[in-house]
Design brief:
- 35% of the residues lie in helices and 23% in strands.
- By secondary structure, the chain is of the alpha+beta class.
- Among the domains are: 103 residues; 97 residues, Orthogonal Bundle (Arc Repressor Mutant, subunit A), CATH 1.10.10.10.
- The strands form three sheets. The chain has a six-stranded antiparallel beta sheet with strand order 1-2-6-5-4-3, covered by helices on one side. Strands 7-8 form a two-stranded antiparallel sheet. A two-stranded antiparallel sheet has the order 9-10.
- Strand 7 and strand 8 form a beta hairpin.
Length: 295
């Protein structure tokens, strides 16, 4: 992929009803699927799209990404894609022009975007269902264990919502390997067994049976004084703890529950953190914290 202006174009555009709707004889209005091809391989751009696109999910096998753009669901492979649903060709082509602009804009801004190489490996609902108690108790918030398994498969639920689900025997930590240009060339996976999980992790039960798991040990609970002191306005010890939790994906409610402080106090800490770091949102704060080794 060129380091300069990323110019791509689409071709071989088709617009039709998905096969299940065709078989059922459904109306085409508002149910059209757009498919197209791209004249460039966008594989190198996908991690940046994964970082900035709304509700992005980067699948491992086969490699493709799904996300929302202007409210439309979009799927991109390395040189093709699809989107849904549209009521007519004009609406679909207007979206396609917007998508090309989004890809160009993301390419131009990639020096200011932290790429997200995290991929998702799909597990079928039936395989997950075998792990569940199959009691359909409803404590997870779903009407049945099979519905909960489907939600887990689509990453719309957390395993911690099921109190009967056994603890995992290991976790898999995936580390990126970069070349001298900063491009991802491979990954290295390291298993974390049960004893290590108990020593290096802390699970917090939240309302509704949900668990938030933090990598929390004696080493990372101390403030990174050297890196923090280089900031124009250093963070306090508590602000560093909150920043660490933000970087791990915790919400204000979760931080409040874990630290046993009021939501108002959490919000105040978050505002101070944003002001001191000069950022506008949690993603920017997490990226800056990682880049400057504050967490």
């Amino acid at each position: 992929m060129s380091k300069g202006r990323f110019v791509t174009a689409y071709y071989d555009v088709s617009l039709a009803m998905p096969a299940p709707l065709q078989a059922g004889g459904a109306s085409a209005d508002g149910s059209l699927l757009l498919e197209f091809k791209l004249n460039n391989d966008i594989s190198d751009l996908v991690p940046y799209v994964n970082s900035v696109a709304q509700k992005a999910v980067y699948y491992e096998k086969p490699r493709f990404i799904k996300f929302l753009l202007d409210g439309y669901g979009c799927t991109l492979h390395r040189n093709s894609g699809s989107a849904a649903v549209f009521s007519g060709r004009d609406q679909a082509l207007e979206f396609l022009e917007r998508l090309i602009g989004f890809l160009n804009e993301t390419h131009m801004r990639r020096d200011r975007i932290e790429p997200n190489h995290k991929t998702y490996r799909h597990t079928s609902p039936l395989r997950i269902y075998r792990l569940l108690p199959r009691t359909n108790c409803g404590e997870c918030g779903h009407p049945s264990c099979l519905a909960f398994a489907a939600a887990l498969s689509m990453r719309k639920a957390s395993p911690g919502r099921c109190r009967e689900l056994s603890r995992p025997i290991s976790l898999n930590a995936v580390y990126p390997v970069f070349d001298r240009n900063g491009d991802l060339v491979s990954t290295v996976s390291i298993d974390i067994d049960e004893p290590e999980m108990k020593m290096g992790m802390k699970a917090h039960r939240l309302p509704g049976g949900r668990e938030h798991i933090l990598f929390w040990n004696e080493r990372n609970s101390r403030a990174p004084a050297r890196e923090n002191d280089t900031l124009p306005a250093p963070l306090t010890e508590r602000e560093l703890v909150v920043l660490r939790m933000i970087s791990e994906g915790a919400t204000n409610v979760e931080i409040s529950d874990i630290l046993k402080i009021s939501p108002h106090t959490v919000k105040s800490h978050v505002v101070h953190i944003f002001n001191k770091l000069g950022v506008n949102d949690r993603t920017q704060a997490a990226v800056l914290a990682t880049r400057h080794k504050l967490v």
